[in-house]
Amino acid sequence: MTPELRTERLEFLPYRPEHEDVFVALLRDEEVCRWMGQDLVPEPQIREVFRAILTDIYPQGRFDVWGLWLAGRYIGHAEVKPTGNVEGHELVTALAPGYWGQGLGGEAVRGLLRHAAENLGLTEAYGMVGAENTASLAMCRRLGFRHLRDVVGDDGSVTKLLVIPTAAGGSEGASRTAVEATAQTPAPGAGPTDGPAPAGARGGEGLAGAPGATGSAGTTGGEDLAGVVGGEGPAGVKIGEGLAGVAGGEGPAGAATGQGLAGAATGEGLAGAASAGEVG
């Protein structure tokens, strides 16, 4: 059962039926979709995805999925899920554009790391970030992610596969202390602390999604909003189980969808034919 989580400013709350409209609005936002590496998905399909979270993902305990709330306002989405890109779990976060640049993306990731360590018993976690998403890459470096390899999609797009020890999440108090210390004494060459992105950085805040297409590493997608139903992604490559395919059928590009929440109805999940979490 997905638990409620809290950080200094954020509440991670399992979705309820009354959250459907805000979920749809987030995943219909063009900027959010852009930095999560997916095209805009028709609203009816996103609604199917949301209902799959309530009727499939939660009841079967497939993986943990939350809405992110700040002072009673819905501001984003988060997941921790098994991945097909590597043997392990990926983190996924997506924030509404109005909340970028406030350090909330990093705070959300630290909350997921604590959950992964304390509740799931994981020692490390992974993230996927598009090579062009310089804002998210900068955030990941500040948090302590390490680059493992590049994954090249069939369309030539490059996604960075990153790893981080879950101990980097620390306790809530320790996280606040670390953030305050970093703000006062940034590490050499680390750039700005976990707040506004460096000048000229592109991208949104969050861990959004590894392409579900088979990349140069020969991997396929794992469980996420993009494939709770398994099948083929837009490029004709397999995507794994996740929020993108819980319902199956045909994706926007006419490709058969896989198992996932974004495909509980469609083939594409939050990460778009992506099954990871792009920190963006």
From TrEMBL:
Residues 181-200, 253-263 have a biased composition (Low complexity). Residues 243-252 have a biased composition (Gly residues). InterPro entries: Acyl_CoA_acyltransferase, GNAT_dom, N-acetyltransferase. Residues 10-165 form the N-acetyltransferase domain. Residues 172-229, 243-263 are annotated as: Disordered. PANTHER family: GNAT FAMILY, PUTATIVE (AFU_ORTHOLOGUE AFUA_3G00765)-RELATED-RELATED (PTHR43792), N-ACETYLTRANSFERASE DOMAIN-CONTAINING PROTEIN (PTHR43792:SF16). This is N-acetyltransferase domain-containing protein. It comes from Streptomyces graminearus.
